[in-house]
Design goal:
The protein has 6 helices and 6 strands; from the N terminus they run E-H-E-E-H-H-H-H-E-E-E-H. The termini are far apart. The strands form 2 sheets. Strands 2-3-1-4 form a 4-stranded antiparallel sheet, with helices on one face. Helix content is 54%, strand content 15%.
Length: 273
C-alpha cells in the first residue's frame, strides 16, 4: 500500500491561541499544503481552495506553549514529498536568518524568502524560486493574486518560526477511536484549560451475576409493592366493616328509643278515659 504524504507543522512559544489566531494558522497551513502539492506541476493553475487542493485530513494539537498541526495531503507522489522537503528547508533557513531592515515591507520579506530558498536545479526547487519571484512582482505591481496570497501564507509561517516535517501515513481516513476524560482547570469565557484525568476508564460490562442481582432486586421491589397494596386493601375493608357495625348499632338504638316513647304516650290516653 502506497502511503500518503503528510506535513507536520510545529509552532513553539505561542501565546494563548484564540479562535481568530487558530483560524489564521489553519488557513496558512492549508494554503502552504496546496502550494506544496502544486510545485511539481508549475505549468498547472495554482488552486488553494477546492477539490485536489485542500488536505484530506487536518488534525491540531496544543500542549504547553507548542501548537502542532498534522496535514495529510491527498498525494502519494515522490515529487510532492520532495516539494514538502524543499519548503521545510526554506522555512528552517528563514528561522535562523537575521533581518537587518524590515522597511522594505512585503516585497523585502519575499526577497528574504527567495534568498533562503534551496538553490538546487530540480524541478521543485526551481519552481519554488519562480513562485516567490512571481509573488514579489505581484506586490510591486500592486496586484492581488492567488500566488501572492499563497506566498504571504508561507511568509507568516516563516515569521512564526514554524518547523515543518514531511511524513508518510498509512491510512489518512482512519477514524479517531481513542478518547480520554479531562478535568476543567480554568474557564475564562474565552478559553478553557483542561488536563487529563488519570485512572478513569470505560465502565466494565455487567456480568451475569450482576444481572441476576438486579433482577432479584427488581422482583423484591415489585413484591414489596404488592404486599403494601394488599395490606392497604385489608385496612380499608376493616375500616368499612367497623363503620357498618357502628351504623347498625345506632339504627337499633334509635328504633328502641322510638318504641319506648310510643308506649308511654299510649298509657297516658287510657288513664284519662
Amino acid at each position: 500500500m502506497v502511503q500518503e504524504i503528510a506535513i507536520r507543522v510545529r509552532l513553539r512559544e505561542q501565546e494563548r491561541v484564540g479562535l481568530a489566531e487558530y483560524e489564521r494558522i489553519v488557513g496558512s497551513v492549508a494554503t502552504v499544503a496546496a502550494v506544496i502539492a502544486w510545485l511539481p506541476t508549475p505549468d498547472a493553475k495554482l488552486v488553494v481552495r477546492g477539490r485536489g487542493a485542500e488536505p484530506v485530513r487536518l488534525e491540531t494539537l496544543s500542549y504547553g506553549s507548542t501548537f502542532e498541526m498534522l496535514v495529510v495531503l491527498d498525494q502519494r507522489s515522490a515529487a510532492v514529498e520532495r516539494a514538502g522537503a524543499a519548503v521545510a528547508a526554506l522555512v528552517e533557513s528563514v528561522r535562523h536568518e537575521r533581518v537587518a531592515d524590515d522597511v522594505a515591507g512585503i516585497a523585502g520579506e519575499l526577497d528574504r524568502l527567495d534568498r533562503s530558498a534551496p538553490r538546487g536545479r530540480s524541478v521543485v526547487e526551481r519552481s519554488l524560486r519562480s513562485f516567490l519571484e512571481g509573488a514579489r512582482a505581484d506586490v510591486l505591481a500592486r496586484r492581488s493574486t492567488t500566488r501572492l496570497r499563497a506566498a504571504q501564507a508561507l511568509l507568516r509561517l516563516a515569521e512564526d518560526g514554524a518547523e515543518l516535517v514531511v511524513e508518510r501515513v498509512e491510512d489518512a481516513l482512519a477514524p479517531v477511536v481513542d478518547e480520554q476524560a479531562v478535568d476543567v482547570l480554568a474557564d475564562t469565557g474565552s478559553a478553557v484549560v483542561v488536563e487529563p484525568v488519570d485512572g478513569i476508564g470505560s465502565p466494565e460490562p455487567a456480568t451475569s451475576e450482576d444481572r441476576t442481582k438486579d433482577g432479584e432486586a427488581k422482583k423484591a421491589k415489585v413484591s414489596g409493592k404488592q404486599v403494601k397494596a394488599e395490606k392497604s386493601g385489608k385496612d380499608d375493608k376493616s375500616k368499612k366493616d367497623k363503620k357498618d357495625k357502628k351504623d347498625k348499632k345506632a339504627k337499633k338504638a334509635k328504633k328502641a328509643g322510638k318504641a319506648e316513647k310510643d308506649k308511654k304516650h299510649g298509657g297516658k290516653k287510657s288513664k284519662k278515659q
